[in-house]
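User: My collaborator sent over this chain with a note saying "see what the structure looks like." That's all I know about it. Can you take a look?
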Amino acid sequence: DELRTLDKIKGISVEDYNKWKDVMDYWYWIEDDMVENIGVAPDGLSNDSTHAFVVLGFALKSDGTMEDELVGRLQTAKNSAIKYPNSYILVTGGVEKNGWTEGKRMYDWLIEEGIDDSRIIVESASRNTAENALFSFDKLYNDYDIKTVSIITSQYHLKRATILYYTQALQ
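Assistant: Without extra context I'll predict from the sequence alone. Here is the result:
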């Protein structure tokens, strides 16, 4: 079905075909070859200010405090920031609970854990993963000179987030 659909798209627009083929090829890479790391970023990433760790939000409790799952993502971000001391950390999430957004709560946690505020970028307008990608790219590429990102999220969320960030990068 995918190949037939791609052939139909190619008959209408070669440019659209190429974009969709890139997305499908990337999807196969995600499914078959993408390496997932737990607890800290892998070796070999850029260790300069052109790299950012993107920490995806997770719904806050009704009182505005963080769930353990979000704290776990932040611990991975902290470990990765220590390993790569020149990288930025972008925290993203704008769903508000009791006056707090995920982005603001994550920022505060990282500061309390000793991460310098000059390394933290806050995106606190997004309400879902697609908006995380859209608004993150806007900040990273318009306000900073970011060339590569690593997504930090929960394992069950990683594939969906990765494809959404990849498709946003094609824009």
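A starting point for your reply to your collaborator: The mean pLDDT is 92.
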